[in-house]
Amino acid sequence: MASVQPTLDGAIPAPALDYHSWCDAVRPAFVAAARSGRLFTSYEIVKDNGLPEPPNPRADWGNLVNSLVRDHVIEHVTFDRSQRPTGEKSAVHVWRGTRAAQAGRAA
Questions:
Q1: Between the chain's N and C termini, which has fewer beta carbons within 10 Å?
Q2: Cα–Cα distance between 18 and 44 in angstroms, integer?
Q3: Strands, DSSP E only, in 32-104?
Q4: φ, ψ of residue 24 in degrees (nearest 5)
């Protein structure tokens, strides 16, 4: 059995999620946003719902969003400037739920 190193403040860190477990945890928040019909960026959904970071942040956010596009849950609308503190105001996609998602036919 592997031991877990406490953090400097003595807290035991949460076990790291694998990619598929992470997707299962965060996807419902994105589906709910898609069903609302409002425009959103990924970071807004993360911030509003307190979602955890993925195992590989550089690739996994894009993989999740691409899977939502492939599943016809969201569609690209425009671009905006990132509100993420580390985003340096770079361009980010603005999404909206598809008509199927807004009607509850896609998840």
A1: N
A2: 23
A3: 74-81, 91-97
A4: -60, -30
